[in-house]
């Protein structure tokens, strides 16, 4: 099932916009994440796709059919919520089969369908238990089975893993993605967790204040962010941002800032120049593209060291006001207060116009 959102807008009583002019096309069988901070409009968008909210304007299409006025029960969707929404007095079997009973399916068909999805999610041995006897991860599997048992054409997830601990979240990420790939069901997944979005989705829609900031593959958003917000939001540890002055000297392009004076690659400088980049820019570079190297370009003093296991996240002062972070392998000894030289991988440089917050590359 293909999902198309055209100029989708939701305005609430009082005039506030939950979502404004969102345009998205989700391909049949695709896994799309709606990613952004709290209040950005991602859940409002999901609830409009589900039919729980009606759009103020714009349209929602499933394939070529406009769904704006179609009731949720007629949309052939399955939905999984952050709260498991299980009936505590019912067994696992009864919770999963409840949507089928509403459809008045025969007992034989109900049993067969429940057994199929329960086996798929590896909870077939739990069918006689009640939710209070299950772990959080098991309850979420039951909720997923209840969505799948209807044999939906679209699966909608609203922060389904937020209540689980880190280990269970990782396990459920793998299981949900594997299941979606096997079944080929078009899936829309709301999350504020960029790790979930990056690891699970074919494409990610990054949202901010009700609008769409970017819509692309995880790799494209990471390697070529088009806005400052996307660059900040995608990637952990967060990208470094440093104020610089962009210019040309002799036959090359350069950037200068506090503690910085760098000749940048010709292809980056030429592209910024063609795009009429202003003189004052924000330079972005990820911590993994900053290394300690005696033959590097930037002098800095180590301010803080945060061990991460196989590497350390090192914060360094390159001036009294400007800091930069680097991911440093643990075999390189780093000591607070020590002066070192940093090498910046300038092929991975990002440049943003601080006034528009758009990339100039």
TrEMBL record:
It comes from the Bacteria. Residues 3-234 form the ABC transporter domain. The keyword rRNA processing does not apply. Keywords: ATP-binding, Nucleotide-binding, Transport. One of its GO terms (cellular component) is ATP-binding cassette (ABC) transporter complex, substrate-binding subunit-containing. One of its GO terms (biological process) is carbohydrate transport. GO terms for molecular function: ABC-type transporter activity; ATP binding; ATP hydrolysis activity. Gene3D superfamilies: 2.40.50.100, Nucleic acid-binding proteins (2.40.50.140), P-loop containing nucleotide triphosphate hydrolases (3.40.50.300). It comes from candidate division KSB3 bacterium. InterPro entries: AAA+_ATPase, ABC_transporter-like_ATP-bd, ABC_transporter-like_CS, ABC_transpr_MalK-like, ABC_transpr_MalK/UgpC-like, Mo/tungstate-bd_C_term_dom, NA-bd_OB-fold, OB_MalK-like. The keyword Lipid metabolism does not apply. This is Sugar ABC transporter ATP-binding protein. SMART domains: AAA.
């Amino acid at each position: 099932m293909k999902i198309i959102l055209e100029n989708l807008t939701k305005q609430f009583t009082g005039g506030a916009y939950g979502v404004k002019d969102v345009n998205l096309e989700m391909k049949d069988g695709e896994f799309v994440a709606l990613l952004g901070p709290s209040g950005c409009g991602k859940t409002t968008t999901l609830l409009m796709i589900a039919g729980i909210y009606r759009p103020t304007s714009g349209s929602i299409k499933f394939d070529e059919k406009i769904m704006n006025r179609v009731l949720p029960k007629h949309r052939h969707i399955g939905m999984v919520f952050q709260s498991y929404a299980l009936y505590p007095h019912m067994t696992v079997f009864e919770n999963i089969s409840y949507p089928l009973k509403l459809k008045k399916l025969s007992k034989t068909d109900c049993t067969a369908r429940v057994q199929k999805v329960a086996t798929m999610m590896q909870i077939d041995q739990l069918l006689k238990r009640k939710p209070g006897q299950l772990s959080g991860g098991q309850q979420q599997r039951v909720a997923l089975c209840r969505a799948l048992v209807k044999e939906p054409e679209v699966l909608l997830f609203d922060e389904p893993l937020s209540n689980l601990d880190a280990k269970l979240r990782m396990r459920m990420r793998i299981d949900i993605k594997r299941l979606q790939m096997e079944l080929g069901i078009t899936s829309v997944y709301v999350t504020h967790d960029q790790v979930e979005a990056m690891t699970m989705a074919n494409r990610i829609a990054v949202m901010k204040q009700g609008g769409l900031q970017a819509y692309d593959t995880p790799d494209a958003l990471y390697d070529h962010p088009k806005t400052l917000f996307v660059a900040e939001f995608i990637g952990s540890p967060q990208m470094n941002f440093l104020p610089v002055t962009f210019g040309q000297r002799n036959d090359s392009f350069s950037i200068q800032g506090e503690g910085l004076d760098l000749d940048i690659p010709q292809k980056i400088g030429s592209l910024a120049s063609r795009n009429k980049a202003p003189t004052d820019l924000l330079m972005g570079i990820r911590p993994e593209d900053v290394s300690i190297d005696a033959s590097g370009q930037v002098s800095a003093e180590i301010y803080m060291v945060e061990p991460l296991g196989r590497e350390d996240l090192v914060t360094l002062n390159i001036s009294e006001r400007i800091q930069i972070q680097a991911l440093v392998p643990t075999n390189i000894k780093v000591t607070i207060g020590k002066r070192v030289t940093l090498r910046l991988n300038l092929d991975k440089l990002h440049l943003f116009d601080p006034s528009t917050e758009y990339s100039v590359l």
